[in-house]
Amino acid sequence: MIKAVIFDLDNTLIDFVKMKKLAVEAAIDAMIDNGLKMEKKKAFKLMFKLYNAYGWEYQKIFGVFLKEATGKVDYKILAAGIVGYKRIKEGLIYPYPGTIDTLTKLKKNYKLAIVSDAPRIQAWTRLVSMNMQDMFDYVITFNDTHVKKPGLAPYKLALKKLNVKSNETVMIGDCYKRDMAPARRLGMMTVFAKYGESKSKGKADYIINDISELLKII
Ligand SMILES: [Mg+2]
């Protein structure tokens, strides 16, 4: 019998892609306002091409973008892009559609927890931004074990805090390697959040395209 549900945070509850698109759009607007001579649509396409090449969390992406787009880095334009991006990124963190409703329903019957590699303050900031701070019994972050997924320590700590056995637990996440594989090793039921846009491959007991499908599985 399932007693607890553990969630990954980024790209499982938080719609990072939506946030990224809005933030990049704001950055491009700001750079164009400050002298970037490029069509907005073209700039948008180039930014995402670079994100795909350098990784979604690459911090120096705007400098690479300007070099690629104009052949040099104009620091006024670069700064405008960074400021435009940060304003949106910090203000707009969206959960995937149906997330709050699904969590509210699950909370009536199950203990809920998060296991995230994010630092504690960032995890909580994101939860508060989405008004989800009271949804979870435990929020396990990198600060708790200093072990990143797919290490087993954060999962074991979650089981201990929740006071449940692994076979009474469901793990849902958007990465096979970090979320599904360790949960399977411990004997949890696993649900892969395909909507999270992760390109990883592996095994899970269930694959869902919408978070509300969880309600049908458990
Ligand atoms: Mg994730």
Explain this structure.
Strand 2, helix 6 (120-129) and strand 3 form a beta-alpha-beta unit. With 218 residues, the protein is of the alpha/beta class. Helices cover 50% and strands 11% of the residues. The chain has a six-stranded parallel β-sheet, sandwiched between helices. The model has no long low-confidence stretch (mean pLDDT 94). The chain has two domains: 4-15 and 94-217, Rossmann fold, CATH 3.40.50; 16-91, DNA polymerase, domain 1 (Orthogonal Bundle), CATH 1.10.150. It binds magnesium ion.
Brief account:
By secondary structure, the protein is an alpha/beta fold. The protein has helices at 16-33, 40-54, 61-70, 75-91, 99-107, 120-129, 142-145, 153-162, 176-186, 214-217, and strands at 4-7, 111-115, 138-140, 169-173, 189-193, 206-208.
The helix-strand sequence is EHHHHHEHEHHEHEEH
Radius of gyration: 19 Å
Shape: elongated
Low-confidence stretches: none
Largest sheet: 6 strands, parallel
Descriptive key words:
218 residues; alpha/beta; Rossmann fold; DNA polymerase, domain 1; 6 strands; 50% helix; elongated; binds magnesium ion
SSE layout:
Layout: E1 4-7, H1 16-33, H2 40-54, H3 61-70, H4 75-91, H5 99-107, E2 111-115, H6 120-129, E3 138-140, H7 142-145, H8 153-162, E4 169-173, H9 176-186, E5 189-193, E6 206-208, H10 214-217
Parallel strand pairs: 1-2, 1-4, 2-3, 4-5, 5-6
Helix pairs in contact: 1-2, 1-4, 2-3
The structure holds magnesium ion.
